[in-house]
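Researcher: Let's do a round of design. I'm pasting the structure tokens now; please hold your answer until I've finished.
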């Protein structure tokens, strides 16, 4: 199975590592390990949880084509790797739809003048040792329908079976683990609340027209973006009774909000290795 493999530097420059001029040899992306954390016993160990160290992968890139073209491509690629390191801003390796933030911390190139190919052996270091896929959802502001849009029954009913449910949406999701998220709430709205599988994310504040609130569960930040891109720390406007950084549960989701505002939700699906997609 051929998988599209790319590197995107912190500069934004992108390189296809399985293009006509580059061959990405097999890497150990599917190799991983966890460390047990707990109390040592006379026989064995009482395990409290598991942790992971930074991930490290080794691979070889083979560059083909005219020597001048190879030198130019290698030079550009190595400049991006070094820029990541010098600015401490990771690049990304993409394996299909999955990616991991990383640095190239070791490189060895030879031969540089071969008429056949140039071999570049590299070591990839991923400080956050998980492959990620961004699951993006949009929830639009909704206007309630007028009464004329629904059937007028002769008898009264406690529930209008013809009226669509405003501010409620079911999301089918094939991912079993809890996950961090990035939520953007768009104004205007006062004291917005979003409930996911019965858990509420509440913010006590006014978001004006043209403003938006960004919640990053991984960074534990709540930031209001105003006109002109002015940023205000809105951490103290969060609900303090229940954490607004609670991870999104695995599996299908039931999302409820009052629909007077719109919001976007990006869920960070993470695995120890990229998922191999099954195709029929």
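Researcher: That's everything. Go ahead.
Model: Designed sequence:
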């Amino acid at each position: 199975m051929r998988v599209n493999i790319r590197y995107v530097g912190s500069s934004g420059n992108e390189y296809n590592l399985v293009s006509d001029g580059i061959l990405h040899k097999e890497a150990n992306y599917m190799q991983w390990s966890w460390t047990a954390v707990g109390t040592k016993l006379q026989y064995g160990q009482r395990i409290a949880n598991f942790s992971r160290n930074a991930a490290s992968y080794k691979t070889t890139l083979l560059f083909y084509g005219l020597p001048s073209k190879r030198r130019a491509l290698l030079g550009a690629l190595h400049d991006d790797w070094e820029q990541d390191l010098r600015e401490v801003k990771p690049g990304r390796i993409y394996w299909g739809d999955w990616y991991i933030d990383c640095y190239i911390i070791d490189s060895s190139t030879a031969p540089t003048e071969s008429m056949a190919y140039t071999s570049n052996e590299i070591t990839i270091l991923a400080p956050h040792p998980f492959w990620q896929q961004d699951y993006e959802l949009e929830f639009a502001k909704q206007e309630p329908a007028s009464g004329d849009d629904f059937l007028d029954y002769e008898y009264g009913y406690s529930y209008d079976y013809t009226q669509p449910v405003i501010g409620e949406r079911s999301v089918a999701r094939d991912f079993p683990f809890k996950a961090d998220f990035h939520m953007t709430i768009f104004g205007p709205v006062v004291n917005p609340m979003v409930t996911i599988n019965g858990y509420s994310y509440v913010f006590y504040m006014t978001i004006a027209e043209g403003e938006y609130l960004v919640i990053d569960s991984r960074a534990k930040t709540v930031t209001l973006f105003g006109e002109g891109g002015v940023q205000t720390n809105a951490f103290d406007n969060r609900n303090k009774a229940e954490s607004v950084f609670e991870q999104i549960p695995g599996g299908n989701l039931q999302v409820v909000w009052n629909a007077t505002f719109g919001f976007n939700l990006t869920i960070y699906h993470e695995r120890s290795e990229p998922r191999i997609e099954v195709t029929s």
